[in-house]
Amino acid sequence: VVTHEILPQLVYSLAQQNRFYKKAAAFVLRAVAKHSAPLAQAVVDSGAMESLVLCLEEFDPAVKESAAWALGYIAKHTKDLAQSVVNAGAVPLLVLAFQEPDLTVKRISASALSDIAKHSPELAQLVVDAGTCSLLVKEVSNSDVGLKRQVCGCLARIAKHSVDLAEVVVEAEVFPRILHCLRDVDEVVQKNAATCVRELSRHTPDLAKLVVNAGGIAAMVDYVQEARGNARLPGIMTLGYVSAFSETLALAVVVSRGIPPLKDALINEPEDHVKAAAAWSLGQIGRHSPDHARALAEADVLRRILAVYLHRDSSEDLQLKAKRALKLDLSHAEEERHPEVRTPASAGTTFGLATEYLEVPWAFRTALAQALLHWAHPGPSHSTLTKWPATATLLCRYVVQQFAKVLPNDMEARKAFVQSGSLQKLQEVQAERGSKLQEMVDTINLQYPPEIVQYYSPNYAQSLLEKMEAFNPSG
User: Fold this and answer.
1) Which residues are CB-neighbours of 466 under 8 A, at least 6 positions away?
2) What is the rounded distance in angstroms from the CA atom of residue 431 to the CA atom of residue 427?
3) Comparing C-alpha atoms, which of 92, 91, 190 is closest to residue 140?
4) Residue ranges of E strands in 163-287
5) What is the distance between the alpha carbons of residues 274 and 171, in angstroms, rounded to a whole number?
6) Taking the alpha carbons of 200, 206, 210, 212 in that order, is the dihedral positive or negative?
7) Angle at 39 between CA 36 and CA 45, to 5 degrees
8) If 266 and its partner were Cys, which of 30, 181, 182, 278 is the partner (CB 3.0–4.6 Å)?
9) 214-235: per-residue pLDDT in tens?
10) What is the pTM of this model?
11) Is 120 helix (H, G, I), strand (E, B) or coil?
């Protein structure tokens, strides 16, 4: 079609012929433009933009639909092509088309506006300046599944660019309507709504707080719990973005039971990028204080993060995020412990946090890291784990370092360290003589009587046998 110079003839006829011809010609232009940016540019170079925009003013909904579809396919490829659509004056007419009673025209015009807004803050601002947001938000509750898909997707693409654009979406009263879409029967509507909430929550603490106050965390936790596969990703990222801003917001995620679905995604999702997102979000929850890290330890999350870190098939990105999450969470192990109740500044806020969670004595102790030592030196049967020296030496040193800081100041922790079997595992750590790791192992061993350390040494049984063989009862 392009090579044989048919496009100029189509464009000429587009402005001259009846509505049936216009619909068919716009369909051909759309079919050409959708394949690639060069083909879309060929449509623009043929002078089709002006004729397509004029078709948006046609009375016939079918002509408007075909023209809007063609403009959207042109705009979706690159920022420059989207700018060509804007320069042709299409945005105001697409907004008018969105207000048509015909649902198909609504869907296609919303899709075209979304394809324009996704490229840059400037283009998104032009879409917003046309009065789009309030119109889009009104249709979030529409019963038509296709329209809800496009509306939620368009709002997400507007909100992602900047704080100002996200605030415009919020001011259009997108909450709580967008949260209702998280329970829609259509999975695409759910995912697009979750993506919109993610884009709104990622910019500033105030916007994240607004999402929490609107009930967004509880709704997102339910969504992550029920969704599967790549659809989980926006929900997982939302919980991570909210948790990253402050310990108050992270505690809101904990109290809303956000840890179990993140742990489930870390364990059961087959795709590494979803696992990596879950590891990152868990790290954002535990990074703030011992209370937050304790919640992860009690949910047996740390051992699971270490498992994906050591797994030989884990991607580099997954290993990196798992390692960072472990370091963030373990960094609180050396902080001073208090047996009395510790109530963070978040108590009494507007988030409705469960006070019973805050009234638990600090029982973190060695539970934060004891599981790591049980994985420290996998035996030959652990064929799914990477070789120890290649991936885990630094991590083991970091864990032992935390123990070396904790145990000298906490008698209960020293007892728990022995009872959990961690002291025995510590004796199995293969550290080079004179290394920092060996120094830290020695520091921990000095916290116990020599007899106890000797009892848990790997060669203790053998040494007893040798003594028994050498012992002569007859003197």
Assistant:
1) none
2) 10
3) 190
4) none
5) 31
6) positive
7) 140
8) 278
9) 989 999 999 999 999 899 999 9
10) 0.76
11) coil
